[in-house]
Amino acid sequence: MGAETVLAQGGSQNHAGQQVQRAYARVAGLMYLTVLGFDIADLWIESAIKGGGSFVDAAHHIQASEGLYRIALTCGLVGTLATVLLAVALYVTVRPVDANLALTALLFRIIEAAIGGVGAVSAFATLQAYLAANHAGALDAKQMAALLDITSSASGFYVPAIFFCVGSTIFFYLFLRSAYIPRILAGWGVFASVLYLLVFLLILIAPQASGIPLVIGSIPILIAEVSTGLWLLVRGIRTA
What DSSP string describes 102-115? Predict the structure, then answer.
């Protein structure tokens, strides 16, 4: 009778653990879509406001739409905050597969978010530089443009993206091992994450090759994250 009680308690605890795991998987699905939504909104609004003109043109456009531009930067910040929630939810979801690898992936995504937070500070500081360019007594356009080239280097985006790629690769690998989600979906996530990593490494080594490779590398990872996010949110994970 005592052994039966212990087994019953163990089974109950295992069931409760699986319930928590499933709940975090759905949170991860929601956070996948949330991060993507806010990050895309940030990039799209910033690009639309700045346009493709010179520094002076961008400064005038930003001054004319300062409120909307601030909303875009805030979207980027919210995306960074949501990345932390995503990383934690993914960690809890795949921890039973391999706790050490799951922790490693969590740390990579947390570092990505930390660098992203620093990037948000830099983005708001850059906004002030754009606004100052329209004031009398400010540095001339060439000086301001040179200053922003230094303080807003593209590597500020590429470096956290590399941490994202490594963390994403490990998380998708753990999904592949677990069969919590369809293997074709997890396998595509591994492929897309590795491809994205190689693209960013290529750009850091050869900056002139940042155009087409970045576009090509972005499409597979976008498909992987959207499809995985929807699957986790709607279907959840398959556990024993």
Answer: HHHHHHHHHHHHHH
- Distance, in Å, from the CA atom of 51 to the CA atom of 65, rounded to the nearest integer, reads 12
Residue type, 13: Q
* C-alpha to C-alpha distance for 45 and 121, rounded to whole angstroms: 18
Q: Report domain extents, the chain.
A: 22-234
Query: What is the model's pTM?
Result: 0.85
Residue 113, classified by CB atoms within 10 Å of its CB into exposed (0-12), middle (13-18) or buried (19+), is buried
> Counting beta carbons within 10 angstroms of the beta carbon of residue 136, is it exposed (0 to 12), middle (13 to 18) or buried (19 or more)?
exposed
Q: How far is residue 149's CA from residue 225's CA, in Å, rounded to a whole number?
A: 31
- The closest of 194, 200, 180 to 224, measured between CA atoms, is 194
Torsion angle of the four alpha carbons 49, 53, 57, 59, in this order, in degrees rounded to the nearest 10: 50
Which alpha helices (H) appear in the chain, and where do they start and end? 2-50, 55-64, 66-94, 99-132, 141-151, 155-178, 183-205, 212-234
d(CA 75, CA 71): 6
Q: At 174, is the pLDDT very low, low, confident or very high (cuts 50, 70, 90)?
A: very high
SS3 category, 98? coil
